[in-house]
Amino acid sequence: MFDLSLPDFEIIVWIKNNDFGKKFEKEILVTIKDLEIDDYSETKDTIVYQWIVPSWIQTMVIGGQLKDFIGNPNLIFLKLKANNDSNIQDVTLKDDRKYKKL
Questions:
Q1: For residue 32, what are the domain limits?
Q2: Number of H helices, E strands in the chain
C-alpha cells in the first residue's frame, strides 16, 4: 500500500527552468545536499523540489542558509513547512508565482 501521509517538515523550492536556473539549481543542491528529496518535477518553465527535513530546527537552519538566495531572479518560490504540527506556522521566504485567472 502507498503511504499518502505528508512528511512532518519539508522545504519547497521552485526554480525557473532556463540556463541560468539550471546553474542556480546546482547552488541550491549543494546547500541541501544531505536531505532526502520527497518530490521532484520539471516542466518547460519550472523545476520544483520538495525535501524532507528531520526537525523544525533543522528546517529553520537550512532555511536561513537558503535565505541568501532570495534575491536571485531564478528563484520563484521558497517555503518551509511543518505539515503535522498546527502550533508551527509555515514560513514563506519568497513567492513570485504567477496565477492564471479563471
A1: 19-39+51-95
A2: 2, 5
pTM: 0.88
pLDDT in tens, 25-50: 999 999 998 888 989 999 999 999 99
Domain assignment present for residue 57? The answer is yes
9 falls within a domain? no
Strand partners, 82: 9
Buried b or exposed e, range 75-102, using 16+ CB within 10 angstroms = bbbbbbbbeeeeebeeeebbeeeeeeee
* Number of neighbours of residue 42 by Cβ within 10 angstroms: 12
Closest CA to 92 of 82, 79, 83: 79
The 3-state DSSP class for residue 14 equals strand
Closest CA to 13 of 72, 87, 89: 72
